[in-house]
Amino acid sequence: MDHENIIAIKDIIRPPQKENFNDVYIVYELMDTDLHQIIRSNQPLTDDHCRYFLYQFLRGLKYVHSANVLHRDLKPSNLLLNANCDLKIADFGLARTTSETDFMTEYVVTRWYRAPELLLNCSEYTAAIDIWSVGCILGEILTREPLFPGKDYVHQLRLITELIGSPDDPSLGFLRSDNARRYVRQLPQYPRQNFAARFSNMSSGAADLLEKMLVFDPNRRITGKMRLDAGF
């Protein structure tokens, strides 16, 4: 992939003996740190920092999705930065191309950034799983702490529904499994929180964008060009 917001491969170091080797070394462009380290640091982050990070993140992700590729492991440590605040999406080890007919593994994405459809073992999913991860990362940039630090998948679902509310029956339409729908219905019921009140330190635009990304039903999540147009 050739894009200024995707980490670039500079070289591949091949083994001297092609018939007998165990390792191949890939050389990437040098970056200074990653978003996880910045969030955990004492480095002040202004609204301009957050906007610039998000713009580059979405720009790179739009390019990835335009190639019919899902990243499937978006998290702050996979977003690399340099001293100029240039952002590059990295670590495509779990990425794969999309297909309307292929079934895909459910166990992808680090738990804290995993979309509800993955937590509920959906084997058919779309680029909406990456958008959920973007929402989790956006919230983490703005609050300086993870939104959903679940200890296991049950706890993860509870933290999600405590914030965005328990899904109604129409919002479960994407689930093909009757067992999955029954499981969600028997979970404790929570009302949707007011994002503007819950995230009072955010601008109204940031809270609105976050709310559009963190939607239980993947078919109702903000998508495509809307992501870049819905800045804050």
From TrEMBL:
Q: Which SUPFAM superfamilies match?
A: Protein kinase-like (PK-like)
The superkingdom of the source organism is Eukaryota
By its UniProt entry, which InterPro entries does this protein fall under? Kinase-like_dom_sf, MAPK, Prot_kinase_dom, Ser/Thr_kinase_AS
Q: Which residues form the Protein kinase domain?
A: 1-232
| Pfam families per UniProt | Pkinase
**Nucleotide-binding as UniProt keyword:** yes
What GO molecular function annotations does the UniProt record carry, in alphabetical order? ATP binding; protein serine/threonine kinase activity
List the keywords (alphabetical).
ATP-binding, Kinase, Nucleotide-binding, Serine/threonine-protein kinase, Transferase
Q: Which SMART domains match?
A: S_TKc (SM00220)
Record-linked PANTHER family: MITOGEN-ACTIVATED PROTEIN KINASE
Protein name as annotated = Mitogen-activated protein kinase
Native organism taxonomy: Eukaryota, Viridiplantae, Streptophyta, Embryophyta, Tracheophyta
